[in-house]
């Protein structure tokens, strides 16, 4: 192997630097999830991370660049989980629309439920991105390639269905998934219960059934 140059050694981030960057991104994730992009400030994020504002700029750039980094950070892992679920299901035999929907929705719900508070914050952050057209390019980079693969799978199972109808049913399902993870408290309130309906109690089974049925309905001729 070639000898590592002095410049390469200097460019390699230290363990402390990586830890600081991770702490800043975790703080940004929580603040952006709670307040949205517009209400969040670099000062807020710095205070949440326990660092100087200059360090936030150093590791994340300006606010928009930091938002981009924060959204993109978990997108690759989430995509890998979804694609692994799809490949495993395909290897098990013929798939249904419900199977495809489950492979897309369940990894997200599972991470929001079991992955710790940062994954739940990320769920809320993705809800902000999905609701605001200004993040069209960010969504196209981080989420659309995987979403497109799943839309292709559904379209292949229903070859006569127009692709816009498949995409519509899929987007409605994504919205339901986000509500399932972030708005359980509303279900509890409207149901007259005393539960907060948080992600710890969320089960993906009913969500998958609801979304699969909705997609099938969207694909029926009207």
UniProtKB/TrEMBL annotation:
What Gene3D superfamilies does this protein's entry cite?
Tetracycline Repressor, domain 2
Q: Which SUPFAM superfamilies match?
A: Homeodomain-like (SSF46689), Tetracyclin repressor-like, C-terminal domain (SSF48498)
GO MF term list = DNA-binding transcription factor activity; transcription cis-regulatory region binding
In its keyword annotation, does this UniProt entry include Manganese? no
The UniProt annotation gives the DNA-binding region as: 41-60
Q: Which InterPro entries match?
A: Homeodomain-like_sf (IPR009057), HTH-type_TetR-like_transc_reg (IPR050109), HTH_TetR (IPR001647), PsrA_TetR_C (IPR041586), Tet_transcr_reg_TetR-rel_C_sf (IPR036271)
A Pfam short name: TetR_C_30
Boundaries of every HTH tetR-type domain copy: 18-78
Enumerate the UniProt keywords alphabetically: DNA-binding, Transcription, Transcription regulation
Checking PANTHER family in the record gives:
HTH-TYPE TRANSCRIPTIONAL REGULATOR BETI, HTH-TYPE TRANSCRIPTIONAL REGULATOR RUTR
| Name the record gives this protein | TetR/AcrR family transcriptional regulator
Instruction: Tell me which species this is from.
Output: Antarcticimicrobium luteum
């Amino acid at each position: 192997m070639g000898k590592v140059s002095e410049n390469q050694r200097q460019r390699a981030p230290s363990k402390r630097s990586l830890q600081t960057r991770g702490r800043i991104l975790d703080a940004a994730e929580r603040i952006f999830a709670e307040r949205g992009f517009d209400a969040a400030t670099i000062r807020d994020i710095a205070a949440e991370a326990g660092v100087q504002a200059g360090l936030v700029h150093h590791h994340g750039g300006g606010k928009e660049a930091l938002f981009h980094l924060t959204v993109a950070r978990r997108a690759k892992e989430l995509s890998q989980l979804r694609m692994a679920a799809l490949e495993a299901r395909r290897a098990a035999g013929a798939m249904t629309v419900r199977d495809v929907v489950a492979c897309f929705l369940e990894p997200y719900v599972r991470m929001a439920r079991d992955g710790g508070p940062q994954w739940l914050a990320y769920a809320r952050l993705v809800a902000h991105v999905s609701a605001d057209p200004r993040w069209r390019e960010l969504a196209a980079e981080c989420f659309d390639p995987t979403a497109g693969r799943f839309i292709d799978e559904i379209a292949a199972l229903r070859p006569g269905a127009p692709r816009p109808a498949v995409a519509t049913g899929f987007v409605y399902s994504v919205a339901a998934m986000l509500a399932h993870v972030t708005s359980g408290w509303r279900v509890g309130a409207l149901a007259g219960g005393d539960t907060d309906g948080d992600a710890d109690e969320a089960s993906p089974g009913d969500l998958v059934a609801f979304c699969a049925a909705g997609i099938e309905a969207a694909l029926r001729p009207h």
